[in-house]
Amino acid sequence: MTKQEQTRAPRQNTTASSEGCVVGIDIGGTNLRLALADTTGCILARHAASTADSRNAATVVAAIERGVEELMREANVPRSALRSIAAGAPGITNVDEGIVIATSYLMGWRDVPLQSMLESALGIPAIVDNDVNMAAVGESWMGSGKNVRDFVFIAIGTGVGAGVVLEGRPFRGMGWAAGEIGYMLVPGVSSEPTEHGAPGALESMVGGEGIRETWLRTWSQEKTSLPRELTATKIFEGAQTGDPLAKAILHQSAQILSYAIYNLSLVLNCPLFILGGGVGTHPVFFEATQKALEKWASRSHLKLSLSALGAEAQLMGAVRLALDLAHATPIKDK
Amino acid sequence: MTKQEQTRAPRQNTTASSEGCVVGIDIGGTNLRLALADTTGCILARHAASTADSRNAATVVAAIERGVEELMREANVPRSALRSIAAGAPGITNVDEGIVIATSYLMGWRDVPLQSMLESALGIPAIVDNDVNMAAVGESWMGSGKNVRDFVFIAIGTGVGAGVVLEGRPFRGMGWAAGEIGYMLVPGVSSEPTEHGAPGALESMVGGEGIRETWLRTWSQEKTSLPRELTATKIFEGAQTGDPLAKAILHQSAQILSYAIYNLSLVLNCPLFILGGGVGTHPVFFEATQKALEKWASRSHLKLSLSALGAEAQLMGAVRLALDLAHATPIKDK
Q1: How many angstroms away from the CA of B149 is the closest CA of chain A?
Q2: What is the DSSP string of B179-219?
């Protein structure tokens, strides 16, 4: 952890110390973010740190411990008021056993007992879940999925993943891997299995890294006046200004994403799809996907929405799960 | 209704008249089948009739009424012992309101209040559901899905549909159309929307009618020694005897079905897929699909099973739902 910063910490009079409070955590490959909330879900303080230098689980837990202390000090809440903690990790997570089964190569976690590590470090009940599921919970609680029984939250950043909410609750699947749509097979993607660690079929056409690689592979001075090294969102901006290669790649990606959304709507028959993540929430990409979906409008009456919580979705989902855990856990007599 | 026949009616001593019994019904485009069961689910009598001549909803309900009388007589059970009835219809069905929203062109039903029609005709509580969902319930109760929390039952006959069982219960979707996978978009299918009434993208490559049409379209005397007019199952038999065109069509269909199953496994993360229906349970097609799925084995540890109940799956599912309804409905004082 090299850089530590506190962001936005409204010092308000709250009932935190009497009724207790919770901490929600978003563990990412680049950043660690924490939020302290009271029992009504109101955020009391925030904390952020970098995970870029060390992503070892013990190091991350130590950073969380320091972050929690910071939050309590910042919000002027006694440590004894802390009821529970919830952490979202970027990987397949066994929620019942509290184990992060596997993250991507970037983190390299395998069977990390994160729940018990957090409980030992902090002395309060903890819950852990996949970060995209947490984001879906956040959107369900106070975002674009509010009051919608069944919906799918699709996170598109470097890669692609989905959080499935059925009957108001995250549906995680028997192997905790429901919504792993990055590997989905649709027209226009490779139907050959990819190597372990490599992006999935859908991901390689729709994820930020896949879009960047497609650009690199197809780039030539004859086709575009834009530079060879370009991120997905910069490619979208190029498409908006009329660059032919950028437009072709944008439309191809949007079309392939529309196939995946249509397939999901056939299987789950849910009325709402929420796009999240830095690539998924780019307005140019969102609009192109919405347009591509019109093709299926006669069969599938689905609504595509932008994430209302944006980068906050995971953190708010974590706060929600921590609150649920706090409500389910009787307060111990001191 | 031209032909009426009773099939297998074991005359056993049962507790039917004291504890009551239920009727399960499978309404198809060709046949109407009824089964009388005691409260333990043991079948007391069966009845079948043709629906080929008249598929009008009132006519079908009248045929059900006659069938129920036949069953009671056959099993020597008084009419007053009948507790509830459940009917599966080949279309999208609103289970809460008891309305068959839409069936295929063959039946042509639109917004048929089947539950209230049955309740009026028979004077007992009724429940209606989609027939593939009922088959999935049957497999979950006493078939290949027994003791499996989450699985997908895929019915492949003329067309293709799926019944999704999550957490032990049928998952029907907010528009009652979950599992409508006949329209799924996978590599190798057309990505253009089909006209209303026409087979869906997946269905046209994997369903019996689609396979037959592919055969017709690609048939030539140079490619095969088999006749031009051939059903899907006859094409599978031709593949087994080494006919090159039949083999090519079998493998193409099996591969495309394997893509759809893989996609379902990504979304739902369920460990089991059950193939049902006359085409889906053909051993040659089942084996080819199983082989095609091996390609994804490293990522997806799913099991493909044959329907254990075969043509009985829908009827047994109907019996199960009727029993659930009977248990949920207090017996009226006479």
Answers
A1: 8
A2: T-GGG---TTS--SPPPTTSPPTTHHHHSHHHHHHHHHHH-
pTM, two decimals, is 0.93
Nearest Cβ partner for B185 among A174, A196, A259: A259
Strands B31-38 and B43-50: antiparallel
Check CB contact under 8 Å for A178 and B267: yes
Q: Is B205's Cβ below 8 Å from some Cβ in A?
A: no
A250 φ/ψ angles, rounded to the nearest 5 degrees: -55, -50
Residue of B120, B145, B122 lying closest to B132 (CA atoms): B145
CA distance A93 to A112: 9
Query: How far is B250 from chain A, CA to nearest CA, in Å?
Result: 18
Residue B199 has what pLDDT? Answer: 86
Q: Which residues of A touch B271 (CB under 8 A)?
A: 174-175
State residue A12's pLDDT score: 44
* Interchain contact, B263 vs A185, CB within 8 Å: yes
- Beta-carbon contacts of A137 under 8 Å, excluding residues fewer than 6 positions away, are A129, A163, A165, A170, A317, A320, A321
The better pLDDT of the pair B54, B304 is held by B304
Spatial distance between the Cα atoms of A272 and B277, rounded to a whole number of angstroms? 32
* Min distance B53 CA to chain A CA atoms (Å): 30
What DSSP string runs through A269-328? --SEEEEEHHHHT-HHHHHHHHHHHGGGTTT---EEEE-SSGGGHHHHHHHHHHHHHHHH
Q: What is the pLDDT of residues B74-127, one digit of tens each?
A: 999 999 999 999 999 999 999 999 999 998 767 889 999 999 999 999 999 999
B187–A186 C-beta distance less than 8 A: yes
Encode pLDDT of B285-323 as tens digits: 999 999 999 988 877 789 999 999 999 999 999 999 999
CB contact under 8 A, B166 and A171: yes
Which residue reads 């540890």 in tokens?
B301
What is the per-residue pLDDT for A225? 95
Q: Which domains does chain B have, with CATH numbers?
A: 4-131+312-328 (3.30.420.40), 144-308 (3.30.420.40)
Separation of alpha carbons A151 and A166, rounded Å: 7
pLDDT of the residue at B16: 57
